[in-house]
Amino acid sequence: MLSPFTPEPERLLSDFESLRALRGWEPTFLHSLRLRALRVFADTGFPTPRLESWRFTNVRRIAETEWSTPPAPGAVPEEAVAPWLIEPAHHLLLVDGQAAPDRETVQAPLPEGVTVVSLAEAVERWPSQVSHHLGRHAELDGRGFVALNTALHRDGAVLLIPPGTHLEQPVQLMFLASPGAAGTMCFPRVLVVVGEGARATVVESYVGHDGSYLVCPVTEIVLESGSTLDHYTVQRQAPESSHVAALHVHQSEDSRLRTHTVTLGGGLVRNELTVVLEGAGGEAAADGLYLTAASQHVDTYTTIRHAAPNCTSNQLFKGILDDHSRAVFTGRVVVEPGAQGTNAYQSNRNLLLSDHALAHSNPQLEIRADDVRCTHGSTVGRHDADALFYLRTRGLDREAAESLLTYAFASEVVGRLTLDAVHDLVEASIHERIDRGPRTGGSV
Amino acid sequence: MLQITDLHVEVDGTEILKGLDLVVRAGEVHALMGPNGSGKTTLAQVLAGREDYQITRGQALFDGRDLADMDAETRAREGIFLAFQYPVEIAGVSNAYFLKAALNAIRSHRGQAELDAVDFLSLVRDRVRLVGLDESFLERPVNHGFSGGEKKRNEILQLAVLEPRLAILDETDSGLDIDALRVVAECVNALRSPERAFLVITHYQRLLEHIVPDRVHVLKDGRIVRSGTGALALELESHGYSELPAAAAN
Fold first, then answer.
1. pLDDT for position B134
2. Less packed terminus of chain B by CB within 10 Å, N or C?
3. Which residues on chain B are in Cβ contact (under 8 Å) with A410?
4. Which of B48, B92, B97 is nearest residue A393 as measured by Cβ atoms?
């Protein structure tokens, strides 16, 4: 057991050596990757609001906390996990960032050649495949949290879908913060490689017990040519916890990505999404929904890089903000020279349910090609007064009318959650959150 | 049923209604005509409970109760319905969900049991046919992406489902072709009953060929300047509003 440490750059190198001792043997590629990342972090440190990309989010509280590393995962009571399991699916449970030892990792039989294992196991069994992708896509430079994850991750998940394979059932990666997580930070690392022409659905779920802890995941996704991935992140951690996540997707030609980010919990949340469309004809659809209350702070930072011709990207992020909560959305669309025939859409809409909630919305377009269709829009506002009045003239009281309009606002994103199990889970969570007054009528 | 006395209403500090008097009894159909800006829509919105329209003098009684003491939803539950001139689009809520929520809010206010999905659907399907719409209409989001005519029909569908005692139609005929106009009129006529009253606001006499009013009123500059029978509407059609006095007492 390590003593608590603050990840101050100068102290990290010595801590790193003790962490290495704790982890035991690792292949050389991984060790050098960690060292490189650690040096980057030593140079960069934690981001501060002086950085343009972190202008509205201050992580001083994280930087100044004396975090400890999580204990080895113990047995997990079924009831902690059950409400969040989607069925049917292949499940992989990670407790405080590490594969749970008492669980069969994948329940239903996987198709031939499909790999769904913990990162630790993948490193041991398929080091060359892992080294081919791990750390190759998530940019380290200038990105303290990604560097820290790359240096310090202990475990995570690896999904390898061979070419031409259609994985029928979704894979759910369940990240659970245990009661022992209080005061700890963990760095789950996920690698997903979808082979040529293959199809898969992956759900990352982040849930947890009460307590103040930091979960800092990095997910790298590689979509080979002609592949399709439907990807979900659903986060419902404790209100005192922090969640700083980075998702990187690398797309080859004619690949299709749909990624959905649903934020329901966490006190301080940062979701970074980077998509690089590197092959012609790729399509990326990214949407997200954040429901914030109390003093939650949720920062969404997306970068869609069009690096090849005839690609399409479509972003829709919506926020519903209550109480004193804050939301930040920064959506960068970069169209590189040569990315002719680009279609890029971006929309960010924020609904304020309280006078004290605040949303910042910053679209950023960097277009360096000429044959480009690019549209963006952003709004921050209250419920539409005309719509409220209209509903009330039909007999709905103010609370019921507001709930209905809030739900209607969310439904544009919820409707895009095509995986029924996730759709229903999210819909139920939204109802629970917005139905403060007596409900009028049920569903038809 | 509705008794309006010396009603003065301000919108954003400007007086729009300047002493309006009107009595509508159960079973009657009243038509309210008048030039643009005379205050027709303001009256409709005030009666429906719009809060940013200030009543500065006078009153409107519904069954002897002062409307000023009732919020919009209470008026709806007590039986006032306004078919909007510009129905509001609500993306993300199906027409069926919306109608069921509205109907059940009103039913529970009346002490009636809420309808379940099955009973509701059988009722609403019936009414959808009455207004000449396809059943798929119920699954579409409220007024979202509807044509002008579909929006107006949707208002009449709500009227038919919610069965108010006082129905106010604010220029429901504008933007309707002659076939749609006939369907709307037939629907209104089918809903006429000794317990129900209508206040039909319109620019044009042509609607009144299909919905024959008991009384016609002309609103000008915030006051009713003339009242009469259906013949008054014909007179207006041929002479226009310009020859009418500017706010004389009737």
1. 87
2. C
3. 92
4. B48
**Domain residue ranges in chain A:** 9-279
Q: How far is A388 from chain B (nearest CA, A)?
A: 9
Among chain A residues, the shortest Cα distance to B78 is held by A395
Query: Could you give the CA distance from residue B199 to residue A257 in angstroms, rounded to a whole number?
Result: 55
Q: Which of B49, B91, B103 sits opposite A393 (nearest CB)?
A: B49
Evaluate the omega torsion of the peptide bond into residue A101 and state whether it is cis, within 30 degrees of 0: no
Cα first-last separation, chain B:
21
| Residue A63 phi, psi dihedral angles, 5° rounding | -65, -30
Tell me if chain A has a CB within 8 Å of the CB of B70. Answer: no
The residue ranges of chain B whose pLDDT is under 50 are 247-250
Rounded CA separation A283/A229 (Å) = 11
* N residues, chain B: 250
Q: What is the pLDDT of residue B244?
A: 64
Mark which residues 84-143 of B lie under 8 Å from A by CB.
84, 87-88, 90-94, 96-98, 100-106, 109, 114, 117, 120-121, 141
Cα distance between residue B222 and residue B55, in whole Å: 13
Q: Could A394 and B105 be called an inter-chain contact, meaning their C-beta atoms sit closer than 8 Å? A: yes
Instruction: Supply B150's token pair.
Output: 């579909």
CB A224 within 8 A of CB A251: no
pLDDT at position B250 is 41
Percent of chain A predicted with pLDDT > 90: 77
Nearest beta carbon to residue B76 from set A393, A405, A443: A393
Classify residue A258 by burial, with Cβ atoms within 10 Å: 0-12, 13-18, 19+.
buried
Residues of B in contact with A409 (CB under 8 A): 92
Global confidence as pTM: 0.89
CA separation for the pair A88, A78 (Å, rounded): 17
Measured in whole angstroms, the distance separating CA A264 from the mean position of its chain's CA atoms is 12
Q: What is the DSSP letter of B88?
A: P
Q: pLDDT at position A19, please? A: 63
Cross-strand pairs, A195: none
Q: What is the pLDDT of residues A29-57, one digit of tens each?
A: 999 999 999 999 988 999 999 999 999 99
3-state secondary structure A66-115: CEECCCCCCCCCHHHHHHHCCCCCEEEEEECCEECCCCCCCCCCCCCCCE
Which residues of A are less than 8 Å from B87 in CB distance?
390
Closest CA relative to residue A397, chosen from A365, A427, A434, A437: A437
Task: List, in sequence order, every beta strand (DSSP E) within A195-296.
Answer: 199-208, 214-215, 218-223, 228-236, 242-251, 256-263, 268-277, 283-292
Phi and psi (nearest 5°) for A185? Answer: -125, 145
ipTM of the complex: 0.95
Would you call A146 helix, strand, or coil by DSSP?
A: helix
CA distance B132 to B187: 9
Q: List chain A residues with pLDDT less than 50.
A: 1-4, 437-444
pLDDT in tens, B196-219: 999 999 988 888 888 899 999 999
Residues 6+ away with beta carbon under 8 Å from A50: none
Cβ distance of A394 and B90 shorter than 8 Å: no
